[in-house]
Design brief:
Elements (H helix, E strand, L loop, with lengths): L8 E4 L14 H4 L2 H9 L2 E4 L2 H12 L12 E4 L3 H5 L9 H7 L1 H4 L4 E4 L12 H9 L3 E4 L5 H9 L6 E6 L4 H18 L2 E5 L5 H11 L5 E6 L7 E6 H7 L9 E6 L1
Parallel strand pairs: 1-4, 1-5, 2-3, 2-4, 6-7
Antiparallel strand pairs: 7-10, 8-9, 8-10
């Protein structure tokens, strides 16, 4: 690289929260014009899944024409192990892998980092790419867009001054119960809202475990379909949830939160 080559920037590009949902939100309803226009100018991408990245770019192109045709966009996927285990640990994404993903920025190209839904590197992989950019002196630019965790927290009525996102709870029944009890104790003892998510097809099983495990006066908030017309947040005491005998949708991504 020539010493005179200007480095590109790494843009953190949020995407709509409707991934996996039965309907799409109009792009202009969920992303500011500045974010869409910035995405349209980018020609190099790092993503979780190339297919969903292309689908997002098609939606961008319908609003703001892409700088180069979709077929000419340079799209790289994050390592597969980063998807399941995260990419904040050395054993899941090496510095060498992440450095390769930002090589285009060192050649003067802006790069867009995207996840399948929401803000990249928040409840999704991508942090290793951001670290590599900082280490290489590449400017990191987060763009404005939806983040499901904060939308759900704001709508929950739970403590927004002290909260933690804890990812997924275990799928094994006994381990899940133990983890839920641990999170509830943190929430009740420290007043810290505990936020977690689940694969949609496990929503009903998680709901059953929550109602069987949590104390009657613990508050449980559930948000689904955020930013869609069908969006809904319900926040009730566990004893109130039990009286309703709810059945959760097993297709819609949801955000769960417990606290007092």
């Amino acid at each position: 690289m020539s010493e005179n080559t200007r480095k590109g920037r790494l843009f953190l590009v949020p995407t709509p929260l409707d991934f996996g949902c039965t309907t799409d939100a109009p792009l202009t309803d969920v992303l500011p014009a500045h974010t869409v226009q910035a995405a349209a100018r980018i020609t190099h991408w790092v993503c979780e899944n190339a297919k969903s990245c292309r689908a997002f770019l098609k939606r961008v192109d319908a609003v703001a024409p892409l700088a180069v045709p979709l077929q000419q966009q340079a799209i790289q996927e994050l390592p597969r192990e980063a998807h399941k285990k995260g990419d904040h640990l050395p054993q899941t994404t090496s510095g060498a892998d992440a450095s390769m993903l930002i090589a285009a920025a060192l050649q003067g190209h802006d790069i867009g980092l995207v996840s399948e839904a929401g803000m990249p590197a928040i409840a999704d992989p991508g942090s290793s790419v951001v670290r590599a950019a900082h280490d290489a002196g590449v400017e990191v630019v987060p763009l404005v867009g939806p983040t499901s965790l904060l939308l759900a927290l704001a709508a929950s009525g739970l403590n927004g001054q002290n909260f933690a996102f804890v990812g997924y709870v275990p799928s094994d029944g006994a381990q899940r119960v133990a983890r839920l009890r641990e999170l509830e104790q943190l929430a009740l003892r420290q007043g810290q809202t505990q936020i977690f998510i689940e694969t949609p097809y496990r929503n009903p099983a998680l709901m059953s475990a929550l109602l069987q495990t949590l104390q009657a006066n613990t508050r449980l908030s559930i948000s689904g379909g955020l930013t869609l017309e069908s969006a809904r947040t319900q926040s009730r005491l566990v004893k109130q949830w039990k009286a309703l005998n709810p059945e959760l949708d097993n297709r819609t991504p949801m955000v769960f939160a417990i606290g007092r």
